[in-house]
Amino acid sequence: MCTAIERIVNEHRLPEPVYITRPNMPLLNDYIRLLEEIWQNKYLTNQGKFHKRFEASLAQYLDQKHVSLFCNGTVALLVALQALRITSGEVITTPFTFPATSHVLYWNRITPVFCDIDPETLNIDSSRIEELITPDTRAILGVHVYGTPCDVQAIRTIAKRHGLKVIYDAAHAFGTFLKGRSVAGFGDISMLSFHATKPFSTAEGGALVTDSSSLKHRIDSLKNFGIAGEEKVIGPGINGKMSEFSAAYGLLQMEILEEEMHGRAKLASIYRENLRGIPGLTFLEQKPELSGNDAYFPILVTDTVYGMSRDDLCDALRRCNIVARKYFYPLCSRYSCYSRLPSARPEFLPVAERVSKSVLCLPLYGTLGEETVRTVCEILSKLNGKVVS
Ligand code: T4K
Predict the structure, then answer these.
(1) Taking each helix axis from N to C terminus, what angle separates 73-83 and 213-222, rounded to the nearest 10 degrees?
(2) Which of 18, 167, 176, 197 to mutate to test the pocket of ligand 1 (most atoms within 8 A of CB)?
(3) Which residues span the domain enclosing 265?
(4) pLDDT of 292-312, one tens digit each?
(5) 190, 194, 234, 253: least buried by Cβ within 10 Å?
(6) Which of 252, 286, 313 delimits the end of a domain?
(7) Where are any strands of DSSP class E within 82-154?
(8) What's the 204 CA to ligand 1 centre distance in angstroms?
(9) Do 229 and 366 share a domain, yes or no?
């Protein structure tokens, strides 16, 4: 590492690691009060009182007809495919996502067909979907990456034209609203993740959202071993249930959600203000029609302009105790389990390849101090142009 970088690291190194995220936890005493109720009821899982209350509050907050709670987002997505009876053929999806998105297809014996992404939104490029449709295509699985909605209208039109289902991995999109409508409400089914690393969390947890009563019924039995009555099993289900401990925690999360969103929005605006104009660094611009959740703050590093590669920048930040993350590198299409698929060839995915090699997510969570964000920006500004020897 060159001396100029060494000097910046020594000057700005933070005393403790600053992680990409930290969960916003409710007051312990508030949770203890709910735990006392659980202790009294002795109902720990299987659609108990807290589960019912949490499901209803989420449906109300999202303004959606049906929400089904799950033990995590991955199992929820597995069940979404089963509920739509998509268990063979091909599904068109994005390679620029967390492994779970492709893996649920594989676990359902479906071949993922990777589509390139839009350079503006970093989501599946709707203008490239139709060329990938074959007689085996069953559905489109979009991901609202970093909470930015996919081109939902174009995808709906394509799906209608070709008789395909639409599923959204909305793991990042809880609390985002497009023209006032929850981003969790698009497609036949949307999946939410409430993992500890999300702005809204139940430690582990997730949900499926649909406006179809019959799908809600099928989802609820599939996540409970396929049971549809004491003496009735409608199909090979799984155990995807959320416990009362997570549901009670989720209810308390709803009370502190606004504060978390507010904190994130403020910090994201400080990032934007201070990073704008640093040569070779760009970030996603805010859209007036979108009320976002600031789940992540991704920057894209153009090494030839910034003077340092994304990987060297990530290393330099780590030396300053700033634990930025390369979400999402490598692309799913690069994993050994998918890299031999025809659609996984890098030359078919030029935008996704470029973005995954240049993206870096900076720390962002409600309780991250403003001063820390300013320090991260100062370091990014000072590192600009410092060539790694
Ligand atoms: N689809 C998409 C697009 C997703 O992004 C995800 C999950 C899914 C589907 C699947 O949903 P779930 O089945 O998980 O509900 C994390 C999360 O595990 C994962 O949920 C999330 N996406 C992904 C983007 O990030 P890691 O392996 O990068 O997390 P980890 O353990 O390195 O944690 C990051 C930082 O967060 C830590 O350095 C410190 C902090 N942290 C983490 C945990 C777990 C805490 O402060 N407390 C904690 O309890 O995957």
Answers:
(1) 120
(2) 197
(3) 3-23+257-383
(4) 899 999 999 999 999 999 999
(5) 234
(6) 252
(7) 90-93, 111-114, 137-143
(8) 10
(9) no
* pLDDT value for 1: 56
Beta strands in the chain (DSSP E): 66-70, 90-93, 111-114, 137-143, 165-169, 177-178, 181-182, 189-193, 206-210, 227-229, 232-233, 281-283, 290-291, 297-301, 359-362
- Between the CA of 357 and the centroid of ligand 1 the distance, in Å, is 20
Cβ of 24 closer than 6 Å to ligand 1, yes or no, is no
Q: Which amino acid is at 215?
A: L
Tell me the mean pLDDT in the region 146-150.
96
Tell me, using a 6 A CB cutoff, whether residue 73 lines ligand 1.
Answer: yes
- Residue 326 CB less than 6 A away from ligand 1: no
Judge whether 389 lies within some domain: no
Question: What pTM value is reported for the model?
Answer: 0.97
Using CA atoms, how far residue 269 sits from 40, 176, 204, 273, 295, in Å, is: 45, 16, 29, 6, 13
Count other Cβ atoms within 10 Å, centred on residue 185. 20
> What's the 224 CA to ligand 1 centre distance in angstroms?
25
Q: Count the Cβ atoms, other than its own, within 10 Å of residue 259.
A: 12
Instruction: Please state whether the peptide bond connecting residue 194 to the residue before it is cis, i.e. omega within 30 degrees of 0.
Output: no
Which CA distances in Å does 288 have to 179, 180, 276, 285, 357?
9, 11, 18, 10, 28
